[in-house]
Design goal:
The C terminus is likely disordered. A hairpin with a 6-residue loop joins strand 5 and strand 6. The strands form two sheets. Strands 1-6-5-2-3-4 form a six-stranded antiparallel beta sheet. Strands 7-8-9 form a three-stranded antiparallel beta sheet, with no helix packed on it. It has 212 residues and is an alpha+beta fold. The chain has one domain: 2-Layer Sandwich (Alpha-Beta Plaits).
Length: 212
Amino acid sequence: MEAVFLLLFALVFYIIYRALKSEPESTPASKVEVSYHGKSYPFSEIKDDPNFPHVRSIHTKIRGVTYSNPDGANRQKIIKQWCREGDALYFAREPKNPVDPNAIQVRRVVCSDDADHPRLGEQLGYLSRELAEELAPNMDKRGFVLMGRIMNVTGGGYAESYGVNIQVEEYMPVREAEGALPATHHRKKPASHSKRKEEVTLPATGSTTTLS
């Protein structure tokens, strides 16, 4: 008799369990699909600008690519879907970062409806703490600007995160370069900071985009 009772109890428990599992779950805010910007702007399309002589190139990789952005955008999904060799990158200071006041964001540069007016895209991560410590003072005090390009995307295999190797291009304003570099020593035009702190003028276009 006791065995029959236990069997009936187990059957009722199973039926209740199945019923609960079949009910639709509410979708938490963190799982709401995030819309990403779109096609990357190629670094090769960024034109020369004698007002920003090229200083040096730095090979490194993006840090923090496994985290999400403040708006919920998943950096791994962005890298998988959009990032390719040759894509242009822009580096934005984040002086109010609670962990590192020298923090430098790595942002995509994306195409818009107007081919001559690219815009800032999603954040992919940060430069390393050590590199940011070296580069941030010149960005803050001397107006240096950083652009870059994706060299290659790594990983993405089974249970393996994507990584991004990049080349950072450092530029100084011509007022800083006078007397330090030949007038002809320049390469690609970087994005330059506008008078408004929350805006940035993108490469060789004159278009102004609000930093998000």
